[in-house]
Specification:
This protein folds into three domains: about 190 residues, Alpha-Beta Complex (Aldehyde Oxidoreductase, domain 3); about 240 residues, 2-Layer Sandwich (Aldehyde Oxidoreductase, domain 4); about 140 residues, Aldehyde oxidase/xanthine dehydrogenase, molybdopterin binding domain (Aldehyde Oxidoreductase, domain 4). Strand 24 and strand 25 form a beta hairpin. By secondary structure, the protein is of the alpha+beta class. Bound molecules: pterin cytosine dinucleotide and CU(I)-S-MO(VI)(=O)OH cluster. Pterin cytosine dinucleotide (MCN) binds next to helix 15, helix 16 and helix 18.
Length: about 775
């Protein structure tokens, strides 16, 4: 697909305009400002000694040799952090985690000792001279084994590996419907462990000013304000003396929501040494120790009538959280938003149960575009529905059309408790079917099968849940979530708007400006968007869960409308008319009937500061903390066509059509870019990527040499289209979109491959669908060709 950009980022550009991304100029010129680009006077560097064992007692740490190396400034151990109460810190997910261990290590690659030196190389050299004596302990890497009585216990602070047990839905009703059903289909799925693999590894620079007592930390964070609060709570430094700055971020994709040990140790070291301390993870350090995602062992069952009517859904999950990042609160967030697993279907009853386990693996199990368990949920239901169709001998498209929640049922209350805002699932699927020529492809498949060729068609009609979130989510996340937007119009009509979110590549500088331009009629080049600095931006909860459009986008619209209300009063004063007689049209105010005699928003801005009407405060600005009334529920239908080579097991994705619906669109080019990026990521999930460990907890790989991420060369041409079903509760009718394709597409790829092999007796293959796996299956089924 070629992206056509029709408009320069100049002039008034509102909703739906395909303008170029304002931020791209600095990125294309290599002038972005990432954490590692920042150099402060007197700055020193931090490196970690990391554990070679997945589970071992620390018997002794000898730093003598390292200390004598020229350029070494300090060496910090867990014992030192313990004295200042920083050996353990709370995670943002309710659990706590080790910053540096005092007694034992719990995964391979864990930070053990920190070295501070004059430069990065000396720091790593010194780290290699530190002698840590370990006594290996028996590790556990299989979450099922971890939950057995006899298992070694991972955490020194717990006496069980059980992180939580969570369930939702009506078990009785579900079980009853399963008994009444004509068909029950059940299948196990393993959604493999993945790494986010953003371009920029995580890092921080902490700078403590001993005179003012202010701690400034530049870090790769998707949620700087939340990190500031956590830092204040753990360090006891007042929150107004901590400033977190997230400069440009080279991708986050969920992996930069957390607080990592490096952030904390660099802050501690800077306070101790009175010098700025930089820590930047290397690629392989990052790939071995930062937050991993998925690692979900799913067992799903679906009950239906002979005619294909789905009755009920039953799912049991064991989720592997590694050593940390589980949820100590045994209730809700641990299972995240997995309860969206009834998907796009009108299912009477459902019951899900998720059990979390600790293993001797790096912390894992939460976000990666988006795994607040939405990806796993969509994968499970879309695979199950496909298997059901095949079992019943029905066409998978027809089975879906039969069971979709019909448009007239929205707002729709799902069996697991969500109220879907809006949807028209059949429209999206039909559009995708038309675009790809579905029925012709089915004919082609039939003919090819007669000739012994392997071709498959896979559909996924997913429903996403984004925009964390409304107050009634309190039960799930433990806080009432909001988001902020502050807009200031200067006397000359130029704008600075600041947000609590933090983009990592999503184009907020452009799309937030478009929202303001839409409502206030100010040219986008006159609007500067700022995010990521806790000293200047209003408090916000950050960018993840595709929440920026649903929450901050809404806050921007509300702030702009507040400004417009005031601007109207000022315009009335300038035009010597009554406010009721003022007409507003894209940046211009005039008295009803005389459009030629107008005042611009810029005239109004100047008057707001120089000549405000009597009784009206000077200035033209507004701030909004927006409490979303509900989540938004974007959706879509994806269709994938594959051909499989019978000699090698190689899969070729011949065609892929993605029809997305994210309600009203702010910038179609950005939205398409997001979808293509996410499809490419999921191509990696389906065909290439997996983080694996042996039974001793040794990671296989842990660098880009072994962890294959796709490029434009491996991936097919993505063909995109849209339907538009606005969100009824969002001020602009928009829903989030960024994670739709990672949520929706893995099932489409796998469904296509299984569809190609079903007649050979293949029901399921776990991702990644490596050619050798397929070849082995073909061999087992006697279908390998020697040609
Ligand atoms: N947009 C739009 N119209 C809509 C919806 C969205 O024009 N109806 C635009 C938005 O204005 C914004 C972009 O699309 O510029 C994404 O908006 P949204 O869906 O609200 O998602 P967020 O901005 O909150 O981004 C978060 C999301 C997440 S959670 C992950 S994970 C992910 C993703 O963004 N990480 C990314 N996309 C990424 N893209 C890049 N380049 N880098 C990452 O780290
Ligand atoms: Cu769910 S990964 Mo994103 O939410 O940052």
């Amino acid at each position: 697909m070629t992206v056509e950009i029709t408009e320069e980022p100049k002039g008034v550009h509102g909703m739906g305009h395909k303008i170029r991304r304002k931020e791209d100029i600095r990125f294309l010129l290599g002038k972005g400002n990432y954490v590692d680009d920042i150099k402060l006077p007197g700055m020193v560097y931090l490196a970690f000694v990391r554990s070679p064992y997945a589970h071992a007692k620390i018997k002794s740490i000898n730093v003598e040799k390292a200390k004598t190396l020229p350029g070494v400034i300090d060496i910090i151990t867990g014992k030192e952090l313990e004295k200042v109460g920083l050996a353990w810190i709370p995670t943002l997910m309710g659990d706590k985690m080790m910053v540096l261990p005092t007694d034992k290590v719990v995964y391979q690659g864990q930070e053990v000792v920190a070295v501070i030196a004059e430069d990065r190389y000396k720091a790593y050299d010194a780290a290699s001279l530190i002698e840590v004596e370990y006594e290996p302990l028996e590790p556990v890497t299989d979450p099922k084994k971890a939950l057995e009585q006899s298992s070694p216990i991972v955490r020194p602070d717990k006496n069980t590996n059980l992180v939580f047990k969570w369930e939702a839905g009506n078990k009785e009703e579900t079980d009853k419907l399963f008994k009444e059903a004509d068909v029950v289909v059940s299948q196990g799925f393993y959604y493999q462990r993945l790494h986010v693999a953003y371009m920029e590894p995580v890092g921080s620079i902490a700078h403590y000013d001993p005179v003012s007592g202010k701690l400034t930390i530049w870090m790769t964070s998707q949620a700087p304000h939340v990190v500031r609060t956590v830092f204040s709570l753990v360090t006891k430094i007042p929150e107004n003396k901590i400033r977190i700055i997230s400069p440009d971020i080279g991708g986050g994709f969920g992996g930069k929501v957390y607080v990592y040990p490096g952030y904390v140790v660099s802050a501690h070291a800077s306070i101790k040494l009175g010098r700025p301390v930089k820590w930047i993870a290397t690629r392989s350090e990052d790939m071995r120790s930062t937050a991993f995602a998925r690692d979900y062992h799913i067992h799903g069952e679906i009950a239906a009538k002979k005619d294909g009517t789905i009755l009920a859904l039953r799912i049991k999950v064991i989720s592997d959280h590694g050593a940390f990042f589980g949820d100590a609160n045994p209730s809700k967030f641990s299972a995240g938003l997995f309860s969206i697993c009834t998907g796009s279907y009108d299912i009477k009853a459902a019951h899900v149960e998720v059990v979390g386990a600790h293993t001797n693996k790096p912390p894992g199990g939460i976000a990666y575009r988006c795994s607040f368990r939405v990806t796993e949920a969509a994968y499970a239901i879309e695979r199950l529905v496909d298997i059901l169709a095949h079992e019943l001998g029905m066409d998978p498209a027809e089975l879906r059309l039969k069971n979709f929640i019909p448009p007239e049922k929205f707002p729709y209350k799902s069996a697991l408790g969500w109220t879907y805002d809006s949807g028209n699932y059949a429209a999206a699927l039909k559009k995708a079917m038309d675009k790809i020529g579905y029925w012709e492809l089915r004919k082609e498949q039939e003919e090819k099968r007669k000739r012994g060729e392997l071709m498959g068609i896979g559909i996924s009609s997913f429903t996403e849940i984004v925009g964390a979130g409304p107050a009634d989510l309190f039960d799930i996340v433990g806080i009432k979530m909001f988001e902020s937007a502050e807009i200031r119009i200067h006397p000359t009509g130029k704008v600075i708007a600041r947000f609590g979110t933090r983009a990592q590549g999503q184009g907020h500088e452009t799309t937030y400006a478009q929202i303001i331009s839409e409502i206030l009629g100010i040219p986008v080049e006159d609007i500067i968007i700022e995010e990521g600095d806790t000293d200047t931006c209003p408090y916000g909860l950050g960018t993840y869960a595709s929440r920026s459009t649903p929450t901050a986008g809404a806050a921007a619209a509300v702030s702009a409308k507040k400004i417009l209300d005031k601007a109207k009063k000022i315009a009335a004063h300038l035009l010597e008319a009554r406010e009721e007689d003022i007409v507003y049209e894209k940046g211009r105010f005039y008295v009803k009937g005389s459009p030629d005699k107008f005042k611009t928003i810029q005239d109004v801005a100047l008057a707001a500061y120089t000549n405000p009407p009597p009784g009206i405060e000077a200035g033209l600005e507004a701030i909004t903390y927006y409490n979303p009334p509900n989540m938004t529920f974007p959706f879509g239908s994806y269709i994938c066509v594959v051909d499989i080579d019978k000699g090698t097991g190689q899969i070729k994705v011949r065609k892929f059509v993605a029809v997305d619906d994210c309600g009203n669109i702010i910038n179609p080019v950005i939205v398409d870019g997001q979808i293509m990026g996410a499809l490419t990521m999921s191509f990696g999930t389906a065909f290439l990527e997996e983080i694996r460990y042996d039974e001793n907890g040794n990671i296989y790989g842990g660098s880009f040499a072994e962890y294959m991420i796709p490029t434009a060369i491996e991936t097919p041409k993505w063909e995109l289209d849209k339907t538009i079903t606005p969100s009824p509760h969002h001020p602009l009718g928009a829903k989030g979109v960024d994670e739709s394709a990672t949520v929706g597409s893995p099932a489409a790829f796998v469904n296509a491959v299984v569809d190609a092999l079903w007649h050979l007796g293949v029901r399921h293959i776990d991702m990644p669908l490596w050619p050798w796996k397929i070849w082995q299956i073909l061999k087992e089924k006697g279908a390998v060709s020697d040609e």
